[in-house]
């Protein structure tokens, strides 16, 4: 069975992005909403797990096509993503899927994180979809100085609402690993999400001018023939499960930070 997403996976991702059942609002202002999926219950007890979070932003000054390019353009990301440590594409798996690496800076004293993900995308007349999930790649095992995090499912649904406006939805369920308490992770994601979305929106506003000066015709995510990454057999990858990675104990560090905050 192929690891590559098929039509049903794209349909399921779209459904989750647009669904209103079972989501509770945590933030709603200035055209931005942050929603968290209600936890499933197990014999009356809520199952502690990492929240699935969804951010929906109404954008009135950037086209859906531009926002889609911003998410894909790795060169441009280096100019606007303040959290990025390192990011690169490893190989392509098909005309609309690749595998890549991303690492990011976490607030001190928590260790920095990284992920290896399979990303796939789809463009239709009335929407753009990109999503990823964590995979195991033999040449990119967990590194000593970073904690390997897990993207269970992370992605974007972008729908045009006019020639220069769109609805931009970000959906993510990710486990940062380490033994950070789940409530810390969930609280942090609700606070950080609006900040990240604002950052992405600003990146969209500035992209056309930047792209004009930086290989304007080069968009391999739209034109697969431009893609010069080596081909890789998707069969060499497997889905990275959270429970197969070791937990780095950082709870004492979080406690120390909490104490400083409250003093």
From TrEMBL:
The keyword Membrane applies. The keyword Ribonucleoprotein does not apply. Its main location: other. Gene3D superfamilies: 3.30.530.20. Keywords: Acetylation, Cell projection, Cilium, Cytoplasm, Flagellum, Lipid transport, Lipid-binding, Membrane, Phosphoprotein, Transport. It is found in: Cell projection, Cilium, Flagellum; Cytoplasm; Membrane. GO terms for biological process: lipid transport. GO terms for molecular function: lipid binding. It comes from the Eukaryota. GO terms for cellular component: cytosol; membrane; motile cilium. Residues 19-209 form the START domain. Pfam families: START (PF01852). SUPFAM superfamilies: Bet v1-like. This is START domain-containing protein 10. It comes from Perca fluviatilis (European perch).
């Amino acid at each position: 069975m192929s690891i590559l997403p098929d039509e049903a996976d794209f349909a399921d991702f779209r459904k989750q992005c647009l669904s209103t059942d079972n989501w509770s609002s945590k933030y709603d202002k200035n055209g931005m909403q942050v929603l968290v999926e209600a936890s499933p219950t197990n014999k009356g007890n809520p199952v502690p797990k990492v929240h699935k979070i969804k951010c929906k932003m109404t954008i009135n000054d950037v086209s859906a096509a531009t926002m889609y390019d911003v998410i894909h353009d790795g060169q441009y990301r280096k100019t606007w993503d303040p959290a990025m440590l390192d990011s690169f594409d490893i190989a392509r798996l098909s005309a609309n899927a690749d595998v890549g690496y991303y690492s990011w800076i976490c607030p001190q004293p928590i260790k920095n994180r990284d992920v290896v993900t399979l990303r796939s995308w789809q463009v239709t007349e009335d929407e753009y979809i990109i999503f990823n999930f964590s995979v195991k790649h033999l040449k990119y095992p967990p590194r000593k100085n970073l904690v390997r995090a897990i993207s269970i499912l992370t992605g974007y649904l972008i729908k045009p609402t006019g020639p220069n406006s769109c609805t931009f939805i970000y959906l993510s369920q990710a486990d940062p690993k380490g033994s950070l308490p789940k409530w810390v992770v969930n609280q942090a994601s609700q606070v950080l999400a609006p900040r990240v979305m604002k950052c992405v929106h600003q990146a969209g506003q500035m992209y056309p001018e930047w792209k004009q000066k930086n290989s304007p015709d080069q968009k391999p995510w739209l034109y697969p023939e431009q893609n010069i990454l080596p081909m890789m057999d998707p069969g060499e990858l497997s889905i990275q499960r959270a429970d197969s990675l070791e937990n780095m104990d950082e709870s004492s560090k979080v406690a120390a930070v909490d104490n400083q905050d409250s003093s």
